[in-house]
Amino acid sequence: KKCVCKLLILFVCISLIVLPQTLRVDRGTETDVMTTIHCFLREKNGDLDDPTDSVLYGPSTQNKIERWWRELLERMEKFFKDQLKALVESGEYDSSSQSDRALLAYVYIPVVQKELDVFRECVWNNHRTRKQKKKELPAGVPEHIFHFPEQYGGEQCGIPITEEQLLEVAELSDVFDYDDDYLNAAVRKECQQHLPNVEEIEPKDAKDAYLYLKSNVDEDVFEIHTWNLQSFCAGFRVK
C-alpha cells in the first residue's frame, strides 16, 4: 500500500506539483491509503464540501484501455513470458527458491521497467488517436493534448498544491518510511559485484544475464539474508 502511495506523491511532484481533480480507483486493499492522501490534499484546496466526492470508484474491468492492453501484450508480455517459461522448463528457475526469485528480480524488474518506460514515453503517449464516435474525447497525440489542452477545446484542470502540503501528507501517512527496495542490501551488493550495470541489459539478453548471475553469486548470502518484498516477485511464477 505505502509503495503505491509513495509513487502517487512522486507522480504529483513530477507533474509540477499538480493534483488531479478526481481519482478513479477500484476498491482494492492497496487503494485506501492512496484515496485518503488524495482527499487530504483536495480538502486543502477548499473547493469541495466533502473531499471524498473527488474519488470515483469502479471495477478495473471498466477501464477503457483495451487498445493499451493489446499493444502492451503484443510488444512485451509474450516476449518476457517466453523467456521465463524457458527458465522454468530447463530447471534453472524454481519459484519456491528464494535465491532464484531474488536473482530474477534483480535482473528482470529493471529490464521490464525500462521497457515499460519506453513504451509509455515513445509509443503510447506519442501515438496519434482518432476521433471516436459518441465520445467527447480529443483526437491527436496524448502528450501534446496534455500540455496544450486549449488547442483541443479543453483546459488545464489540475489543482496546484505546495511542496509543504506534500511533505505534510507524506509525514502523516509514513509513506517515505517504507523501504521500496525489493532486495535486501546484502543481496543487492552481491549481485552488483557480478552484474553492476543491470539497467543496461537488453531485453533479449535478460535470460542469459540471469543464468550468468546464478552461476557466479555466493549462495551463502541468500541463505543468511532475506529480502524485503517477497510478494513483489510472486508474479514471476510462470503460469
Automatic annotation (TrEMBL):
Residues 1-24 form the signal peptide. The keyword ATP-binding does not apply. Keywords: Signal. It holds the Pfam family rva_4. InterPro entries: Integrase_dom_put. The keyword Lipid metabolism does not apply. Residues 13-135 form the Integrase core domain. It comes from the Eukaryota. This is Integrase core domain-containing protein. The lineage of its organism: Eukaryota, Metazoa, Cnidaria, Anthozoa, Hexacorallia.
